[in-house]
Amino acid sequence: MYKRIHGIKPKVKFGISPFGIWKNGVPQSIHGLSSYNTLYCDSRMWLEQGLVEYMAPQLYWQIDPPARSYLALLNWRIQQSAKGRHVYPGTAVYRLPRTGSNWSVTEIVRQVNITRSMREHLALGNVFYSVKQIMQNVKGIQTELTELCKQKATIPKMD
User: What residue stretch is flagged as signal peptide (predicted)?
Assistant: First the structure.
């Protein structure tokens, strides 16, 4: 698909948003559904071979649980980007409501700050799912994101 898109429109940027866990046990502390074995999705190869300009892995877990950790998975994903592709982790804003997982807004803020701290490794921003919770300002998330995003964002260059 990458080659076809670029054959028609070379300036179009192509990326994917795969399930957050590539393989059970990779990295070592991670356990859960394996997108490689269950969904037949080799997102690691796509990143290693530069078959996408960016990847937005669905890292819909908290930072601290060891079985599925946002931080461990983000670190692993950026390490796979041998061709210097951008990584924009998916952030689970949908887990804020009390009727669901009941995450705190602090969790989302921490994830944004972790991603920002990895900018030099091409983790260049977050993708929020879903915008519904932001628009409804669930637990004040819109207010917190407004505070975090005071400076105008610049579009990262993709070679």
Answer: none
pLDDT single digits (tens) 32-62:
999 999 999 999 999 999 999 999 999 999 9
- Both tokens assigned to 36: 């490689």
d(CA 146, CA 144): 5
Residue 154 in any domain: the answer is no
141-144: Cβ within 8 A, 24+ apart: 141/93, 141/96, 141/105, 141/108, 144/105, 144/108, 144/109
Residue 21's CATH number = 3.40.50
Q: How many domains does the chain have?
A: 1
Alpha carbon distances (Å) from 115 to 18, 19, 45, 73, 137: 18, 18, 22, 12, 22
